Amino acid sequence: MVGAGPSGLTVAGDLAKKGHDVTVFEAFHKPGGVLIYGIPEFRLPKDIVAEEVRLLERQGVKMECNAVVGRSVTLDELFAQGFDAIYVGVGAGLPRFMGLPGENLVGILSANEYLTRANLMGGYRFPEVDTPVPPGKNVVILGAGNVAMDSARTAMRMGAESVKIVYRRSREEIPARQAEIHHAEEEGIELVLLSNPTRYLGDDDGRLVGMECLQMELGEPDSSGRRRPVPIAGSEFTIACDLCIVAVGSGANPLLTGETPDMALNRWGNIVTEPGTGKTSKPGVWAGGDIVTGAATVILAMGAGREAANSIHNYLYICFLEGKAGCNSTILTKKGERTMNAGKIVRMLGVLIPIFIVTGCSAHNPFILKNTTETKAVSESSYPPHQDKVFLTSEALPSGSKAEVIAKIEVGKIWYGGAKSVHESLANRARELGADGVVEIKTWHQPSGFAWVAPHGSGIAVKFDDKSVLEELTGEWQ
């Protein structure tokens, strides 16, 4: 994983649980990403984040901090070092400014820098920690999103006498959550609405002393659906301030993407990925979170990480099958048996799917059985435990079993189960291969009768030529 934020940590945890060897590279000196540098201590105590990271480390996840991937090492160099797959979750940490006159005055900071100094570097604990954070007596925040509210409430806790949020639209258009607005106003933070800054004012020493603004009114809706703010001529006014925190959004940092020319980006510099999987245009590389969507929420970044983890797991499993010596399997079709590499069988079907591996029996006599008392124990010990059907060979049937045979595999039929989204394409491809029937099944690992290489998704019934190869596979993937 490149980036130890909420997205990267989610992928790391999911893949570690699936048995993979995981390393996380983090540019900062502590893992956690926006959870530790962006969200203030009063909203998310850093001890909670540290404990979550420790739990991952106990699962075997390795954390490599102070590693700026894209500068100290490239993605191609990581592949050369032996990594099989890479997930990019570096966030969108490039601050945006408004380009106003006087922007180089002392006392003007981006919200990214201000919150990083206060949170990650412990500035909120001054004087116990000597991290320099401009305190500011009269503070102005530009922008009205959640980051702006965090900056304003942090400034108040840092000793400010006055904190104002300047926003060019009305209260109804404020993008921050209502709860955040409520908390800010409860703490004495003032909303200066329908106002837009036009230039910064400084003293002879180059320090910020104020800001000139222009009053606005709302016109017709713009492309975002919100009413466009229109300047009111002659409505200029001045706000006195010695600290201004610019919280008008952030973009994709090009440190990594600029060094990866074969990875497609959109016009904003965000990585382009395949919906639902997080795959990028660069083979073996996935991405998710703010580097893909732009600045969004922690939960969306975690969700993208979970989808990518499933996709990476399937990819690694297929690569494992393709690279495994002697991992040849037989697919049963109407034209007879076709023997080829098990991983290639999956790729041939056009979807990343696991394989039902049948061994120790004739191709004509495996059965799919509905659970009874005698077979339920097998299902409950398998993954996941809530499935209600088990795939067994006739040799694996318990003596005196009352299990009901609900289907029987025949030569020329391909059996599969899983998400409806792949059913139609898989069925059509099966018929192209010569199958005269396609039947849905639900099945999971049953040690005595067959092996299930991947823990979720759809599959195809195949037969291993050599049972010892199957035993070796299941041993490594236990």
Describe the model.
The chain has three domains: 6-93 and 251-320, FAD/NAD(P)-binding domain; 97-248, FAD/NAD(P)-binding domain (3-Layer(bba) Sandwich); 326-476, no CATH class. The protein has helices at residues 6-17, 34-37, 46-58, 75-80, 111-120, 146-157, 178-186, 254-257, 290-293, 298-323, 342-348, 373-380, 423-432, 467-476; strands at 23-25, 62-64, 86-88, 94-95, 108-110, 138-142, 162-166, 190-192, 195-202, 208-221, 227-240, 243-246, 250-251, 285-287, 328-333, 336-341, 356-358, 366-370, 389-393, 404-408, 413-416, 437-440, 450-452, 461-464. Strands 5-12-6-7-8 form a five-stranded parallel beta sheet. A five-stranded mixed beta sheet has the order 16-15-24-17-23. Strands 9-10-11 form a three-stranded antiparallel beta sheet, with no helix packed on it. Mean pLDDT is 76; it is low at 349-423 and 433-478. The protein is elongated and about 80 Å long. Strand 6 (138-142), helix 6 and strand 7 form a beta-alpha-beta unit. With 478 residues, it is an alpha/beta fold.
